[in-house]
Amino acid sequence: MPEFLQFAFSGLTVGAIYALVALGFTLIYNASGVINFAQGEFVMLGGMVTVFAHAAGLPLPLAALTALVTAVVIGLALYRFAIEPARGASAVSLIIITIGASILLRGATSIVFDKNFHSLPPYAGSAPWIVGGAALLPQSLIVLGGAAAIVVALWYFLTRTLTGKALLATAANRLAARLVGINTNAVVGLSFAVSAAIGALGGILMTPITFTSYDSGTLLALKGFAAAMLGGMGNPLGAVVGGLVVGLLEAFSAGYISSSYKDAVAFLVILGVLFLMPQGLFGRGGVERV
Amino acid sequence: MMRRFFDSPYAVVLVLAIVVAVLPLLLPSLFYLRVAALICIFALVVVGLNLLIGFAGQVSLGHAGFFGIGAYAVAIGPTHLGIPPWLALILGAIAAGVVAFLVGRPILRLRGHYLAVATLGMGLLFAMVFANESAWTGGPDGMPVPRLVLFGWRMSGPWTWYWIAGVTLVIGAWIAANVIASPTGRALRAIHDSETAAQVLGIDVARYKLIAFVLSAVYAAVAGAYLAMFDGLVTPEASGFLRSIEFVTMAVLGGLGSTLGGIVGAALLVLLPQLLTVFHDYEHIALGLVMIVVMIFVPAGIVPSLANLLGWRKS
Predict the structure, then answer these.
(1) Any bridge partners for residue B144, and if so which?
(2) C-alpha dihedral (A101, A104, A106, A110), degrees to nearest 10
(3) B112 or B46, which is more confident?
């Protein structure tokens, strides 16, 4: 039982980060139909910029804020200079653009900062609590609490504010949204900014646990994408559930089966789910116009 | 005249054969010949992948998995099983085809981004097996690949491999041209335009998608085996995610649906790092920029856009 709890704790912690990445994918996909493979880079930037701003002498909260602002600016630049000019391009072209952007960001980060691994001191001490015989790190709680707060804030933003509703309207039908006076370009730009912010927050939360480096975004983007697809693309609730499921699957297969095949188990389950439910867990079947 | 000539898929094969035959006379050193051999090897993958992405309209982010099967076949076969390298190459290509046939049915039922994530997962699974089964594959460090011996001749060096890869590329392009000109090619294009409409017309959608998938897997496996034997080494990176992305990028940059485009795309992505070695640290930035800029300004890919510009082809 303590073993089971231990794996569950670590799975939920990692899963919360995957859920944030998947949420970022979902937001941008809903608003613009683009799968943004540079999403993992926002997480990486969140961690790296915080580490280096902190090392340069800024207090931690200020360093985290710097990272957040950097990621948002880069997210907006990505939309303005890479996505908006390519409007009307095919889905594959857009995927290539975002992958190009992620390669570019990785290269730029390795030059501006370095190619080493970095970490941050835990935000609330490193003495674990013992829960049911399993060790629970305070940082894990911070990650889970932070992720939950972000999800609630996003939910509030989308359903209770006018701007958020404009985003939902654009996602539902871009032309209709424009007809009722919504500036859909600004809304899509906003979705990139919000996704970047969510990603960067994920990076800031997880860096004390997992280390970060210029190339840590790739795997996160793959896992986040897989989680978003598992939940059903375009469904925010599905993204959160998908992220947690992928995290738990990884932790349990690392613990009970083999740590070198933990990624394999996660992807095998995703393949299995997609074979049985081709639209993901919470996706709706689409109708194709011929 | 020019226009009609370039509309025929066989014209590309003819031009390609001439270029492959003449190129060595123009290249100043063995270094360039080595680069040309690499271009031929990667172009082979892309010509196959183009059948799947460009004609059938099915995206795969996992073809490096098949590339890896071919590469590890010529490494594991001779080293662990005592199979001669040429037989290992053929068996590897067959194995990739069989694997593609088995996973193709369920995977190709998925559409769009779901297909992308499923193929991505498939590719990652192969890469993980190659990295983890150290007893067979040498683990993350990879393993040496014995030289290919044909009729008592040891095949090594850029000169030999240029001819092997170049001739195979011409044959591969010719086979692809045959497929494109056949009823199968027309069926694939119909599926690309609309799966539902193709089905209504009586096209066995699943079967034709599977044909394109298996064919492209075999192309990738042969190229993977060539690269492994050319380098004399294979590592799990051969089947990594970045390799898969590289293949798709080559196909899209050059121009989907154009065999010549695939070859140009492969040449571009192989040449770029060679040209950028001077700015070693900035290589990634330049690669990313090229990908973004080409996709923004010529979303149809370099070759189709150029052909349009020169008036060789109807839009």
Answers:
(1) B233
(2) -160
(3) B46
Hey, how many other C-beta atoms are within 10 angstroms of the C-beta on A123? Answer: 17
Contact, B315 vs B308, CB < 8 A?
yes
Q: Tens digits of per-residue pLDDT, A116-134? A: 899 888 888 778 888 888 8
Distance CA A120, CA A48 (A): 10
C-alpha B17/C-alpha B172 separation (Å) is 11
Distance (Å, whole) CA A187 – CA A64: 25
Residue among A220, A285, A284, A288 at smallest CA distance from A36: A220
Contact check, Cβ <8 Å, B121/A101: no
Q: Which residues of B touch A108 (CB under 8 A)?
A: 285
ipTM: 0.86
The CATH number of A2-272, from 3.40.50, 3.50.70, 3.30.70, 1.10.3470, is 1.10.3470
Minimal C-alpha gap between B276 and chain A (Å): 13
Please compute the mean of the pLDDT values over residues B125-135 and round it to a whole number. 86
Report the distance separating Cα B20 and Cα B191, nearest Å.
33
Does the structure show a pLDDT above 70 at A285?
Answer: no
Rounded Cα–Cα distance for residues A216 and A208 (Å): 14
- Going by pLDDT thresholds of 50, 70 and 90, the confidence category of residue B98 is very high
**What SS3 state is found at A89?**
coil
Whether B314 has a pLDDT exceeding 50, the answer reads no
> Using CA atoms, how far apart are residues B11 and A275, in angstroms rounded to an integer?
41
Chain B 240-259, residues with CB within 8 Å of chain A CB atoms: 241-242, 245, 248-249, 252-253, 256
- Whole-Å CA distances, B34 to B14, B30, B250: 23, 6, 19
Q: Taking the domains of chain A in order of start, what are their residue ranges?
A: 2-272
Of chain A, the end-to-end C-alpha distance in Å amounts to 54
Chain A residue numbers touching B194 (CB-CB < 8 A): 288, 290
Degrees (nearest 5) of the Cα angle A114, A120, A126? 155
Among the listed residues B36, B39, B40, the one whose alpha carbon sits nearest the alpha carbon of residue B25: B36
**A43-60 pLDDT per residue, tens:** 999 999 999 999 999 999
Cα B68 from chain centroid (whole Å): 12
Burial class (CB in 10 A: 0-12, 13-18, 19+), B62: buried
| Tokens at A277, concatenated | 């439910």
Tokens 């880069």 belong to which residue? A74
Residue with tokens 């937001």, as numbered in its chain? A27
Number of other CB atoms surrounding residue B276 within 10 Å: 17
Tokens of B10: 């066989």
